[in-house]
Amino acid sequence: MILQGLGMPDLNHRTKSRYTQRLHKIRKQMTMLSDDFASSIPTEGNYSDAYFAYNFPMNLMKTIVVVQQIRSWYAALFSNKRRVSVLDIGCGEGAGMLGFYHGLRDQGDKRALDLVGIDGSRKMLRRAKALAAWTRKSDRRLKTRFLSQNIDSAYRCEPKGRFDVILLVNSLAEIIPEEVIPTQFIKAVARCLTDDGLVIIIEPALKRLAHRVMRLRSSLVKQRTLRVLLPCLHDNDCALLQVEKRNEWCHQSISWSPPDFLKIINQGLNREIDILKFGYLVLAKSGVTLIRPQGHLAISQLLTEKGKKRCFLCTPAGRVELVRLNRARTSCNESFDKIKKGSVIEVHDVTMKKLSYWQVKDNTIISILK
């Protein structure tokens, strides 16, 4: 369906020569779109084909990953609902709402879904409607509708009603371009949730945008009006906001296999398209009874150095450096070698050299929970 929308329905490695001019135009648009984005200029509507070719599949997959994370940790969520309602604010071409749909369906969840998308761009809404209509052909349990409406920081949930999930997928930076995301805006959105509903925020993994989300998370935790379910596993101060140099930011780096058409479009651009990078928050009302996972989140890859390996963890006490000397490797702690960014681990019996420095011993037990 994406290729049909781009006017290259049979694009592959054998047929790409037919579309030389079309591919050149999209690649040029992608470069201009990236330049404008780096300057905080929202011009997706001007380069809609480039956005559809590159950003749509990436954002779709990011949403699928987040939904899978939610279902992995909170399997009982919405278990008593025969139909789930979703509102996608600033839906664009529908990557968020359709990503949520595929995230459920890919895990065998066949319950009925009502998807509502709101956006101020009629051009993008036309594509979203076409994609939704194409998806509905194979799934009668899916209902969709779209509203054309400009959205700003004064937005109050429309249409009236309650939703099980409200999505803000790559839309907050356009709705609120300032350095601070007002908690009033998020709380106003959350008033449209059902009692056990979720707000899912996904943003690009740029330092400035990620810091905005990190500060938003800290404000919401302090105000106790909403509960952070993911990616944080505690309600204390953000570990990375405490780092003095402030040169780190919380984001995900997930490997995936991009479709062949995206690899073809990327030829000559050489972007890192096989890694999904994004920041996200999953929020619930403060009274929700879901049990949060135990353990610590790995916020770095495993770093190999001479004579040792190390990684960084997000803990209630802040950012912690977890170190294992090569000579301390045993069958008890061999799982240390499998730690990846995003892993959730349990650690028993370490030596705390400092509050922020834990050293793995011969008898330290390390378990990777996820």
Task: List descriptors.
30% helix; 370 residues; OB fold (Dihydrolipoamide Acetyltransferase, E2P); 9 helices; alpha/beta; single chain; eight-stranded mixed β-sheet
Task: Report what the structure shows.
This protein is α/β, with parallel strands linked by helices. The chain folds into two domains: 2-285, Vaccinia Virus protein VP39 (Rossmann fold, 3-Layer(aba) Sandwich); 296-368, Beta Barrel (OB fold (Dihydrolipoamide Acetyltransferase, E2P)), CATH 2.40.50.140. The chain has nine helices and 16 strands. It has helices at 2-5, 20-38, 48-73, 95-105, 122-136, 172-175, 183-190, 207-223, 260-265; strands at 83-89, 112-119, 142-148, 163-169, 193-204, 226-230, 252-255, 275-285, 296-298, 303-305, 308-315, 318-325, 344-348, 351-354, 357-359, 365-368. Strands 1, 2, 3, 4, 5, 6, 7 and 8 form an eight-stranded mixed sheet that branches. Strands 9, 10, 11, 12, 13, 14, 15 and 16 form an eight-stranded mixed sheet that branches. The radius of gyration is 22 Å and the shape is globular. Keywords: Iron, Iron-sulfur, Metal-binding, Transit peptide. InterPro entries: Mt_RNA_Methyltransferase (IPR052571), Ribosomal_Rsm22-like (IPR015324), SAM-dependent_MTases_sf (IPR029063). It comes from candidate division WOR_3 bacterium SM23_42. It holds the Pfam family Rsm22.
